[in-house]
TrEMBL record, chain A:
It is found in: Endomembrane system; Membrane. GO terms for molecular function: NADH dehydrogenase (ubiquinone) activity; NADH dehydrogenase activity. The keyword ATP-binding does not apply. Residues 137-425 form the NADH:quinone oxidoreductase/Mrp antiporter transmembrane domain. Keywords: Membrane, Transmembrane, Transmembrane helix. It comes from the Bacteria. It comes from Streptomyces shenzhenensis. Its main location: membrane. It is a multi-pass membrane protein. The chain crosses the membrane at residues 6-24, 31-52, 88-108, 120-137, 143-162, 183-202, 254-274, 286-307, 323-342, 377-402, 422-450, 471-493, 513-535, 618-636. This is NADH-quinone oxidoreductase subunit L.
TrEMBL record, chain B:
NDH-1 is composed of 14 different subunits. Subunits NuoA, H, J, K, L, M, N constitute the membrane sector of the complex. It is an enzyme of class 7 (translocase). It is found in: Cell membrane; Membrane. One of its GO terms (cellular component) is NADH dehydrogenase complex. The lineage of its organism: Bacteria, Bacillati, Actinomycetota, Actinomycetes, Kitasatosporales. This is NADH-quinone oxidoreductase subunit K. NDH-1 shuttles electrons from NADH, via FMN and iron-sulfur (Fe-S) centers, to quinones in the respiratory chain. The immediate electron acceptor for the enzyme in this species is believed to be a menaquinone. Couples the redox reaction to proton translocation (for every two electrons transferred, four hydrogen ions are translocated across the cytoplasmic membrane), and thus conserves the redox energy in a proton gradient. Belongs to the complex I subunit 4L family. GO terms for molecular function: NADH dehydrogenase (quinone) (non-electrogenic) activity; quinone binding. PANTHER family: NADH DEHYDROGENASE SUBUNIT 4L-RELATED, NADH-UBIQUINONE OXIDOREDUCTASE SUBUNIT ND4L. It catalyses: a quinone + NADH + 5 H(+)(in) = a quinol + NAD(+) + 4 H(+)(out). The chain crosses the membrane at residues 6-23, 28-48, 60-83. Keywords: Cell membrane, Membrane, NAD, Oxidoreductase, Quinone, Translocase, Transmembrane, Transmembrane helix, Transport, Ubiquinone. It is a multi-pass membrane protein.
Amino acid sequence: MNAENLIALLIAAPLLGAAVLLVGGRRLDAVGHWVGTLLSAASFVIGVILFADLLGKDAEHRTLTQHLFSWIPVEGFQADVAFRLDQLSMTFVLLITGVGSLIHLYSIGYMEHDERRRRFFGYLNLFLAAMLLLVLADNYLLLYVGWEGVGLASYLLIGFWQHKPSAATAAKKAFLVNRVGDMGLSIAIMLMFTTFGTFAFGPLLGTHAEPGLAGGASEGKLTAIALMLLLAACGKSAQVPLQSWLGDAMEGPTPVSALIHAATMVTAGVYLIVRSAAIFNAAPDAQLVVTVVGAVTLLFGAIVGCAKDDIKKALAGSTMSQIGYMVLAAGLGPIGYVFAIMHLVTHGFFKAGLFLGAGSVMHGMNDEVDMRKYGGLRTYMPVTFITFGLGYLAIIGFPGLSGFFSKDKIIEAAFAKGGTEGWILGGAALLGAAITAYYMTRVMLMTFFGEKRWQPDENGNEPHPHESPRVMTIPMIVLAVGSVFGGAIFGIGDRFLHWLEPVTGHSHGDSPVSALTVTLATVVVLVIGGAIAYAQYGRRPVPAVAPRGSLLTRAARRDLLQDDFNHVVLVRGGEHLTRSLVYVDHTLVDGVVNGTAAGFGGLSGRLRRVQNGFARSYAVSMFGGVALLIAATLLMRAV
Amino acid sequence: MNPVNYLYLAALLFTIGATGVLIRRNAIVVFMCIELMLNACNLAFVTFSRMHGNLDGQIIAFFTMVVAAAEVVVGLAIIVSLFRTRHSASVDDASLMKL
């Protein structure tokens, strides 16, 4: 059997799971979670088989394509359902199915007492299928299908506890904000079609050896396409200015947060930019915008993460920040693409681990999310503590762990951009690393160290923190192992670089500072950030009620006023716009239409008086008319 | 005699007829004025026929007479029935066709 034919099965397995679980009804309640998990794992196994097949070929021939059928076969408009598996999509497939399967396994324990667990697994499978379709599609139109599928699945999962109004609102918000980005993608696809006549990856993006059509268009058009793609990426990846949905998305069950933040959804934007490298490479202005968006978001998310007392929201801020790193790297061009994806993969491990750890803490604490009511949990939950701790060391970039290898490379690449831009971007990335160390240390100290701060709730139930069941801790352990060794496996000997280079291309750039200096600086800032957090939260007791805090802290608690901004500018602005449009419609458009009608009505009211019924007056008008005609005829002759 | 004089006469008769149609109220008189206009036209046709030396105009004059005869039959019938219903032959009294 050819390896190509397996590609469709990758998507088919979770899709089948979603169909069976959602259509099957209550009969499957008892086994639904295992069906979902097994089908997800089956997809992972197929992914591993394909990966082994790719490794067996030489680097230039590692692109498999499978043409399933012609979707819209019209003259001059060819849309196929075809898949492309190359090193880039292979990386994503393994991440999505691998981390996704672990999250499925974890959810079995986490959602044990939820009566709608079968439906939950159906949605999880749908999420995986949509994401796999997104990364495996061989043209932008099919990618768009997966893109929308991810949006749908995220809506269903964020609002899974739909009986809570906050969850329903958060789901709606995520969906609406994502629609803005989706519009960017659809406009980009239309622009591609009008410019190049195709949106298939092969002819459009070309290969390393022969560049595709993308280089041939004018720079203005390419910049427009690239900016629209960036808008799409901003929506899915929660980048400024479309970041506001991510924090609220924490309303979903914790495994959903892990899935959205680590393996799927937010990585889609980075995938889109790296996949469209050929377009971005030819549009330097757009690339600059991408780097700015990345740098702004990485600081924005980090600052928000510092102020949140809700453990999931602090981690959400961290996700935004880490994705900002990836987008920044992707905007740097060939010097950054590989590292963006490498950070994406390592982030997939440690962020999934952190979220699952947070979920485990909540599981033991009666779903309490306020870190000020945790404290001293390390003795109660040793496994969660150790796995979370390893994830923590990985995300702050502790030397030797996975985040160190990938983040360090991104900071290095940012400096290598050269010129003033390089210094600014590199500086922002370094500052981000310091803040990351600060807020993650804060989370760690508030949750696992210090005195216990939890109180009985209003019903007198005191939480009894306990370790989570085996089905939840095993995925956490696996992810922790990945967080520890992933970076070394990828980074040492540039293995990941050589693996991905044939797809994305790579250049080393010209860094004004040596790699060793950057590494030392990274370690220094991470020690400083961690030390400040220790001084604030480790050395003195954490107050159970949040202090008022400075102006910046209060702003950061409100997500740096993102919702207030959106409300004032977009909601109010939109209301004013619609109101003025209604006014214009009523006065101008309706005025013209009604005025025309009234004018004709009045005129005919006057004209009808001519119909007086007197035969002689009709005769006068006839004679007058004939006389006029004759006069006119004579006049024309004379002239 | 100069044939143009006949044209002057025809114009004069036509004008008298047209004026009569416009200013008289009695349907019979209006009718007679219409006949006057028709005959003024006939005179003009015959005159032109003579001036141009062919018979087309004279043939049309015959046609006009035939049509006028038919018209008289219909017209007089209308006037009679009008008089019977309204006891008046005034054209202004028959002004029902208005808004």
